[in-house]
Amino acid sequence: MTKRKRILRIVLLVATLASMFFVPWVLIKAWILPLPGTVQEQVDDALNHGFDGMIVYVDKAGEPPEFYAAGWHDR
Q: What is the structure's pLDDT at 59?
């Protein structure tokens, strides 16, 4: 193996390990965990994953619209 290839492999390995620092682990955790039973529980749970607030509007045909909210009003 040439010296140039060895240096390139080391640089790529270091860059890969360094990029792990910038992964949004909170969002990956939120994506992997099972969803709560209701929409309001999901909205409340989103605050535990680092979101400041969330508003959800659900409009189903033939039913009145539903609103869900959680978070800070003026953080």
A: 93
* CA proximity to 57, closest of 30, 35, 39, 72: 39
Q: For residue 42, give the nearest of 56, 29, 28, 24 by alpha carbon.
A: 56
CB 69 within 8 A of CB 56: yes
Domain boundaries, the chain: 24-75
The type of residue at 32 is I
Phi-psi region of 71 (alpha: psi -120 to 50; beta: other; left: phi over 0): left
Rounded to two decimals, the pTM is 0.48
